[in-house]
Amino acid sequence: MSVTMMAFQQGKRVRFLWLAVPLLLTPILFSQSAWSPQTLPRHVIEFVGSALIILCVAGRCWASLYIGGRKNRELIANGPYRYTRNPLYFFSSLGLAGIGLAFGSLTIAVVYFLFGYLVFAYVSAREAISLDGLFGEAYWKYCRQVPAFFPRFRPGAGTHQMSATFNPVALKRTAIDSSCFLLAIPASDFIQALQFAGLIRPMLRLF
Question: What mean pLDDT do residues 165-188 have?
Fold first, then answer.
């Protein structure tokens, strides 16, 4: 498969994710946390959500240091790619779960994480076909050593040793994309204020 075709398919996947945004916003706009904002469980849930969002941003930037400018050109198997073949997808799913927690809901967090897992599992399966064509047996050897999604921390994971390559353009793009996750933190307070003002009427109370 040509690099042009792979870029085209990647563009379709990005557009699909943007189209899914309204669907993801629906449970946030029309539900509220079953925990009062003043309670300890609510504070703990929101704190964990913020921590997951920050971890998402840091993890995505970490992965970008290794794959920036090399995607579909080299088989990356170092850095976070020693532990999972899809660190960008894994950290993004954590960020989605963090968004749900930032809004005070364990239910939304689980739904968002599962959504991310299923979408990225489909995308990574499609990408595996392209990587097989590009790298052949070297890629499948890597697959046998490193899990597709959930990280496995063990010595010797990965097949290649290479240092991080600082690509300012790729890192900047990843940081900007990841900043969308950070917007969930102030957005949760804003939507909560709208609900208290009666401008948005939640229909469900979710734990």
Answer: 75
Per-residue CA distances from 198 to 30, 98, 149, 195 (Å): 12, 26, 41, 5
**C-alpha to C-alpha distances, 44 to 103, 125, 178, 185, nearest whole angstrom:** 12, 36, 23, 14
Q: Distance (Å, rounded) from C-alpha 30 to C-alpha 173?
A: 32
User: What is the pTM for the complete model shown?
Assistant: 0.81
**Looking at the predicted structure, is the pLDDT value of residue 84 above 80?**
yes
For residues 110 and 54, the answer to whether their CB atoms sit within 8 Å is no
Q: What is the pLDDT of residues 65-75, one digit of tens each?
A: 887 767 767 88
Residue in 108, 87, 104, 85 with CA at minimum distance from that of residue 96: 108
| Domain coordinates in residue numbering, the chain | 38-206
Beta strand spans in the chain (E): 31-33, 204-206
Beta carbons of 109 and 49 less than 8 angstroms apart: yes
Q: Which of 6, 118, 17 is nearest to 71 (CA)?
A: 6
Q: Exposed, middle or buried by CB within 10 Å (0-12, 13-18, 19+), for 69?
A: middle
DSSP-assigned letter for residue 103: T
Residue 98 identity (one-letter amino acid): G
Q: What value does the mean pLDDT of the chain take?
A: 80
Angle, helices 168-182 vs 184-196, to 10°: value is 20
The predicted-structure confidence for 135-149, as pLDDT tens digits, reads as follows 888 899 999 999 999
